[in-house]
Amino acid sequence: MKTTLRFATFRFLLAAFVMFVAAGCNLVLSTPTPNVTATPPAAATPTFIGAPSITPLPQPGATAAPTCQIPSGWVPYVIEPGDNLTTIAESTGSTVAALLAGNCIENPDQIFAGQSIFVPFVPGAAPGDPGAAG
To answer: How far apart are CA 131 and CA 78, in angstroms?
Structure first.
């Protein structure tokens, strides 16, 4: 019986020790820190702001160019693919020089499809036709 009492005491002490250790593991002296996950920044979306334009700077001693005036009676014409000032001048009974001066174009090679210029009449319409203005 002495052995049984010792064994029972040993089991009791062992159980008390285990419960004491287990209870001590649950004691928390500081407040837990919440788990915060960082939200990745939103990806930047590129924005097209248009093609850059070049503004020429005035040269020292240069005078301002006179303002361009559209000749009276000239009508707007939208340049089509394949057009150049020579063919436009021929089809409107004008000259390249007159088109350059009337539209303030300095370089005849710098026109493009979709650009609007002024011409004496719309190509394909005779001068004075009701369709000559557009």
So the answer is: 15
